[in-house]
Amino acid sequence: MVNVPGERWVIHLPVVVPDLHRARIFARTAARALALLTSRIDAGEVTVSPEDAQGVRHRVFCDRRLAGGGRCALPTDHTAPCTRSGLNRRR
Fold first, then answer.
1. For residues 85 and 73, is the Cβ–Cβ distance under 8 A?
2. What span, in angstroms and rounded, lies between the C-alpha atoms of 25 and 60?
3. What percentage of the chain's residues is helix, strand, coil (to nearest 5)?
């Protein structure tokens, strides 16, 4: 196998939980924990999907662009103003 410069790989790690709400909570918790260990976490791209419909994805983090740069690190369904706090982000 040859590595192509600039090529990136994505890890898919199936974790089974009983509903969308708990899936989002688990995914946020996992992303935040991993972000403490490495700067390679792209939390804005974290999604969850039904086990039998993995093409139907639900975002976990808001990820809206913020004035002055950066992205919102709050959950998708937040009601507070968007903010970068909450995650160690590379963006």
1. yes
2. 8
3. 25, 10, 70
Question: Each residue of 7-59: pLDDT tens digit?
Answer: 888 888 889 999 999 999 999 999 999 989 998 888 888 999 999 998 999 99
- Chain length of the chain: 91
- pTM of the model as a whole: 0.76
Take residue 46 and report the two structure tokens written for it. Answer: 């974290």
Q: Which residues pair with 65 in a beta bridge?
A: 71
Helix (H, G, I), strand (E, B) or coil at 72: coil
- Which run of H or E residues covers position 20? helix 20-37
User: Tokens in use for 69?
Assistant: 């740069």
pLDDT recorded at residue 79:
94
